[in-house]
Design goal:
- With 105 residues, this protein is mainly alpha-helical.
- It has a domain of 60 residues.
- Helix content is 73%, strand content 0%.
- The protein contains two helices and no strands.
- The longest helix is centred in the C-terminal third of the chain and has 43 residues.
């Protein structure tokens, strides 16, 4: 079995690499904001309050509302854990960036 081949990596400085890490964190934050928005819309749809959606269906039962609420709660918990990891990652990247900037002086 042969090893996988990866594309050539561009020449990056340490500063460029740290900036790439910080940019990736920003993109993850953007993705998480879309997830949170979708979860809010899921609740609005379930409750029949999502604007632009004509809901003529029967109202959800209490069990259905609780099921959707549980799903949203689980997603919010997962997003919260992800936020903690991203905070640690950002803190480490900012510390490294600060150290190389001090070294440039």
């Amino acid at each position: 079995m042969s090893m996988p081949k990866f594309p050539d990596t561009p020449d990056l400085t340490l500063e460029d690499s740290i900036i790439q890490v910080i940019s990736s964190i920003a993109m993850e934050e953007l993705a998480l904001s879309h997830i949170l928005n979708a979860e809010g819309e899921k609740l609005q749809y379930t409750l029949g309050t999502l604007s632009g959606v004509n809901s003529s269906a029967t109202p959800p039962t209490l069990d259905q509302v609780l099921e959707v609420n549980g799903s949203v709660k689980d997603m919010l918990s997962t997003v919260s854990m992800n936020q903690m990891f991203l905070l640690g990652k950002l803190s480490a990247a900012m510390d490294a960036y600060s150290k190389i900037k001090k070294g440039d002086s």
